[in-house]
């Protein structure tokens, strides 16, 4: 019996049944075909007597996972010692199970990634991140001299946490911490570390962030070479200190962080100053300052003594006496010059007065002369200027006369 024809499009009036949607999803998934997948084994289930093995494969850089099914012979042939946390590469085909509405991968080949391949991948990732500038020295920031608050991301109750807290507080007892405990290895480490970074980076009271973990194998330290974590550290606004493993360990996060500490104890030395050393430095500076001030005062005292020993300051009245004598001499010269000028002016005045008197009309009158004027005041200088009967005024040295003109 043939199935009923399916509508080309779904609508509110003609919706697709669940089985149709499930069939279409299965068809689209089947188009992907066989693919090679890289991931980390988060869980492995080998049931006794069962021929199928179930794996949970997760992305090391994201909180995503897929279920993988494989025949036991496939697992035994490619990765017989496979354990949780291992990295694998498998050849699989995605399958959609309509009954459960789930997606899984069916693998026909599984390869466990060895240490050499892991190191080669890390080297390729290192070159990629370096080419993008994530390791550039010029972008690394200086740590604050005395952070107000330190953010610490580390494993719960770990030796790394104890070393950082104890050694930091030993150096600077009043330092404040905000500690976020996360897994530092395994499938869930990277996303939780990234979340903790975001929390601390958004906290305005945190001045520096420390990522701390104790030593371990290359596989144990893989989360700290994860690309997503490296980019998250690169994007932080807050300076980041990497204190992962021992001095010989060098995960990629060491190259991205603003400061690399060889050990968690070394991180404590880098994030805060030593109170005892700073106190000693202050005391040394105070002593140097005291010596400098005393030397300056002594030098200026000697300079003042040398100035005071000079004659001009030892007997300042000598200089005043000299100036007083000069002032007195100048005053005498000014007095004599003024007297001479006054006497010359007096003689000139007397001579001028004598000349004025000699030329004065009054002096002429006193010698017996007279001034004859007509009635209108005109001075008569010739006889023809008057006529018979005119009345004339005759001015003498002492008084005046009235006279009439006769023929």
Automatic annotation (TrEMBL):
<keyword id="KW-0378">Hydrolase</keyword>
<keyword id="KW-0963">Cytoplasm</keyword>
<dbReference type="GO" id="GO:0005737">
    <property type="term" value="C:cytoplasm"/>
</dbReference>
<feature type="domain" description="OB-fold nucleic acid binding">
    <location>
        <begin position="17"/>
        <end position="111"/>
    </location>
</feature>
<feature type="domain" description="Exonuclease VII large subunit C-terminal">
    <location>
        <begin position="134"/>
        <end position="351"/>
    </location>
</feature>
<dbReference type="Pfam" id="PF13742">
    <property type="entry name" value="tRNA_anti_2"/>
</dbReference>
<keyword id="KW-0269">Exonuclease</keyword>
<comment type="subunit">
    <text>Heterooligomer composed of large and small subunits.</text>
</comment>
<comment type="function">
    <text>Bidirectionally degrades single-stranded DNA into large acid-insoluble oligonucleotides, which are then degraded further into small acid-soluble oligonucleotides.</text>
</comment>
<protein>
    <recommendedName>
        <fullName>Exodeoxyribonuclease 7 large subunit</fullName>
        <ecNumber>3.1.11.6</ecNumber>
    </recommendedName>
</protein>
<keyword id="KW-0540">Nuclease</keyword>
<dbReference type="GO" id="GO:0006308">
    <property type="term" value="P:DNA catabolic process"/>
</dbReference>
<dbReference type="GO" id="GO:0009318">
    <property type="term" value="C:exodeoxyribonuclease VII complex"/>
</dbReference>
<dbReference type="InterPro" id="IPR003753">
    <property type="entry name" value="Exonuc_VII_L"/>
</dbReference>
<comment type="similarity">
    <text>Belongs to the XseA family.</text>
</comment>
<dbReference type="GO" id="GO:0008855">
    <property type="term" value="F:exodeoxyribonuclease VII activity"/>
</dbReference>
<dbReference type="InterPro" id="IPR025824">
    <property type="entry name" value="OB-fold_nuc-bd_dom"/>
</dbReference>
<dbReference type="Pfam" id="PF02601">
    <property type="entry name" value="Exonuc_VII_L"/>
</dbReference>
<dbReference type="GO" id="GO:0003676">
    <property type="term" value="F:nucleic acid binding"/>
</dbReference>
<dbReference type="InterPro" id="IPR020579">
    <property type="entry name" value="Exonuc_VII_lsu_C"/>
</dbReference>
